[in-house]
Amino acid sequence: MNTKTPEAQPIAKKRLDYKAPNFTITDIDLDFDLAPEITTVTARSRVVQKNQQASDLILDGEDLKLISINIDEQPWHDYQITKTGLIIHNVPTEFTLTIVNEIKPINNTALEGLYVSGEALCTQCEAEGFRHITYYLDRPDVLARFSTRITANKQRYPYLLSNGNRIAQGELADGHHWVQWQDPFPKPAYLFALVAGDFDILKDQFITQSKRKVDLEIYVDKGNLDRSHWAMTSLKNAMRWDETRFGLEYDLDIFMIVAVDFFNMGAMENKGLNIFNSKYVLAKPQTATDDDYLGIEGVIGHEYFHNWTGNRVTCRDWFQLSLKEGLTVFRDQEFSADMGSRAVKRIEDVKLLRTVQFAEDASPMSHPIRPEQVIEMNNFYTVTVYEKGAEVIRMMHTLLGEDKFQAGMKLYFKRHDGSAATCDDFVAAMQDASGIDLTQFKLWYSQSGTPELTVTDNYDEKNQQYTLTVEQYTPATQDQNQKQALHIPLDIELYQHDGKVITLQYQGQPIHHVLNLTQSTQQFIFDNVTEKPIISLLRDFSAPVKLTYDYQDNDLIFLMQQATNAFSRYDAAQMLLAKYVRLNVKNYQENQKLALPDSVLDAFRAVLLSENTDPFLIAQILTLPSENELANLFTVVDPIAIHEVRLFLLTQFANELYDELLAVYHHNNTSQYQIKHNDIAKRSLKNCCLTLLAYADDNSRANTLVSQQYHQANNMTDCLAALNVAVKAELDCRTELLVNFDDKWHQDGLVMDKWLALNATSPDKNVLATVKKLLTHRSFTLSNPNRIRALIGAFVNNNPVAFHAKDGSGYQFLVEILTELNQKNPQVAARLIDPLIRLKRYDEKRQQQMRKALEDLLKIENLSKDLFEKISKALEA
Ligand code: TRP
Ligand code: ZN
After folding, report:
1. Which of 128, 217, 269, 303 is labelled catalytic?
2. Predicted confidence (pLDDT) per residue in 577-621, tens digit
3. Cβ(261) – ligand 1 distance below 6 Å
4. Nearest residue to 759 (alpha-carbon basis) of 747, 772, 748, 771
5. What CATH code would you report for 452-543?
């Protein structure tokens, strides 16, 4: 019977509807007969009934061609194929299920499941990609022991990789060969991986704490071996760090990393076989910047750390994603902090959170770090789940301290190793191991939105008492109206005007510098305060909140120079700038003159010239916040006003600090290129100075310096910094340099991504025409996610003036791109739409055009669940 029903709208799954699976699979033997056109998959699973009421086995499966089903070696005909899988009726309580099916990797442009990347074949199974490979219980609470046999043409695919240990291999008569892999650790299907191809391999070894030898192998495209060494260094550093800081050792005899060019995200932690976007593996000084090097270190660490936080203990269901991601981001942040500059790492993480996560909280996609409902899971790999999730772990670390936090980790592994856990389980382990009550703290998992702290104070000279009043308030978000008071750690310090730190005390008792906020309004009294103090608030960004306190300029200037916490010095500078950005945006909108007091410029001059400050930190303080970061200062964003005010500030800095910038620029030359933190710091400050110099009213000198630096650079950091400022400050040399770069690098996709992104973020009036023209550039293709993010992602996200052009041309352009990408790669399409769904943040005219664009998109035939979820939320706002 064939009843035609109207196309149903996708429905959301709810966190509270979780039910344990009716069946589980304890073991699976996979057999792949590999070829790009058609791959035959044979899956032999041991299935065990868990719920005696259940007689139908419901398996997930999409885009599969079923060949046969056997139960206990006998053909089975009592089944039904549905749109989302396979229902096998009246199955026994324990049996061997053998399913044969075919897939077509070559047609897989979504890069989910088994697909073709360049000359290789590879998989991506998180979150729900395994169902594109075979019919299975594709949910993270079903853990099975996997063995994988791969057969393929030997010449085309000399390396056949999967999870675990290689236990057998052999040759076949027809030019084919096979390899058999076995992974002793039970795992959910999302951690399955397979790679076939021809590679160069960098090999090394690691001796673990308990003296076990682990083979390390990094697989890269042929010819790229000279770009694989930093990844290996980072891997070994990560393995050592996890042993010393967390006491966690690697558990297999081999650890492999494969770099592929076609990948939707950064990288994937498949057990024993991490697969990486080549962007996060390949680096040599001529092609990669210091930021690329640090990014590789961070992502290599991140995926490696997942081996314990994600793989050994996995997630019960996808609503618990932050259990592994928030925790693993916290771990990779700490790793990077321990390897390099802790202060700068913190500043960069906070910048990302404030710029992107705060914007997400204020958008139709607002959700708690543990989402309540999901239509398409791929839409929830967000800065909220990852970065805010890491902040929530960090707050627990702040509340417990390192020792109790590590005791909590130990207990967590003791209770949950080898199984699938929940966020509640994690907090319970932290609470039980520390004896600290986290009941109210747990609200951070269920409440979305960015809390706002308003701090007022009073100094009582007669009684030498200082009183702090703190209010917390979380504005409603689209997903949630009612908000409760959270448990917020507020780290503070008090200073005398001579710089001396005031000891915190009340009635003779010391008070800890981290205050526990638990109510909507709270007072804190400090005794023996002999003068009106200067307060440093939210040190180290102790909680992911917005802070309001009526600072005087002089207090901020004091904190910029004197705060003991490096983050606080940076943050004071940010608050000072924010004040003048707000003022000047208003001036701009009212056609008034823009202005910046000399005292502010002098404060920045003092930081620039301060000799006992890390140059890396100086560069952070002297780098003006991005237009996107500034946008978060406003409820209604005026992209042009923000752009013009930022330009005004840059020009003021350049004109007024010119000689100092020039001197510091020359002083921080590093002749030889090395990845050492002191050198990275120097280059960062040098290039920060060069950038500012280019905005001086007279930019002829800068034009020469930039051109010289570009041509003389022996490394990509200096080369790209020069090119970047040439484009952004519209220096005369920009056209020549852009052509030179294209000529030199056009065959190198990863390097060209930098060039594409620069073109897309140019302040040039005709930038949209340029971007459209670049869609046919020899280095561009709409089938590679890195290229898409570099050109189109950069334009829609990082060129707000052009994307939000009054005539709606930016929105129209995005509609055209998304119409094409909707079918081709829904994951990438759904990420690109983010700036368009934030329509509520713009004026009426822009809102109308954005809504029109969204309505056009909603009419697309076969609109993906990914885009549907975001568009429908945006339109219901
Ligand atoms: N688990 C991966 C990480 O954070 C994320 C990831 C990689 C991913 N590829 C993906 C998520 C594809 C969704 C889809 O390290
Ligand atoms: Zn991760």
Report:
1. 303
2. 999 999 999 999 999 999 999 999 999 999 999 999 999 999 999
3. no
4. 771
5. 2.60.40.1840
